[in-house]
Amino acid sequence: MSVTGTEARCAVITGSGNGVGMSIAKALHGGGYRVMIADIDEAAAQRLASELDPSGKTAFAHRLDVREKAQFEAALAAATARFGSVHVLVNNAAMTVARPLMEISPEEFDAVMAVNVRGTFLGCQVFGNYFRDRGHGRLINMASLAGQNGGSATGAHYAASKGGIVTLTKVFARDLGPSGVTCNAIAPGPIDSPMVHRTLSPERLAGLKTTIPVGDIGDPAFIGQMVLLLASPGAAFANGATWDVNGGLYLR
Length: 252
Known about the structure:
By secondary structure, the chain is of the alpha/beta class. It is 48% helix and 15% strand.
């Protein structure tokens, strides 16, 4: 399939009703993409979709529980029914829990893994199959600095899940690359998002900033611009990479 930079493109973004996912959806929509705002919080998704385009022609909301393969299949069907085709999936939905290592219950560990790792796997599998059949697609997974350095403010289950996402990104990139489908991850450090402000007290956040070489936390709008770049037809040679955005906290 021939894909050009002028083709009307569609992106599905999970967990995009709030936070960094909202910034990603806004960046893609602002870049000319038609977007599905997919979130388990349907009301939040609807608010953003209405803000982006009240007519529903270029943005619409869809309830999605990323733990369920059938719901990913339904989301893909809804997006293709509305827009004709899909070109990009951003696996952004995540469960973030800050818990001392020895206090994490097996149930909470499984719950975090189900959203973060299982959800990313299912999204890549369902949309990856669709993209492979079409000969083009972009899978973009939201990892984290925590998955690279073991985390600090977040729980071990969150850090482990984000490390798993880095590995899944490599596996899907290798498997789907020959079919014209790329898979990349973005690993943000602390970002100016509701999740970070919920997790860290003002005092802890101020202390954290002193440890970051650039002296501040990141801008979620920039994460959106990175997604926009990796989603583009011209990003065909970027595959299997984890793109660091951490202010110099983790260097490799």
